[in-house]
Specification:
The protein is mostly beta strands. Helix content is about 0%, strand content about 60%. The protein has no helices and eight strands. It has an eight-stranded antiparallel beta barrel.
């Protein structure tokens, strides 16, 4: 599954336990799924990704949150 986010960020779900965040500046960061989270939540040191019924949100400590939607 792939998500497009505001500001040109992208998130790809890789397997069942990893979200690969591709930031607009080209950095690629893998974050792990929080155990037993429902709906799915992924978190790392400075990034988080939450999937909900209305879409998803990429959280970044430095700049806040970005709305995301499932990409075609």
């Amino acid at each position: 599954m792939r998500y497009s986010c505001e500001q040109g960020h992208r998130v790809d779900i890789v397997g069942s336990n990893t979200a690969r965040v591709i930031l607009h500046d080209g950095r690629i960061i893998d974050i792990s799924r929080v155990a037993n989270s429902a709906p799915p939540r992924y978190a790392g040191v400075a990034l988080s990704f939450d999937i909900g019924s209305e879409g998803a949100t990429l959280g970044q400590d430095e700049t806040g949150g970005f709305a995301c939607h499932e990409a075609d």
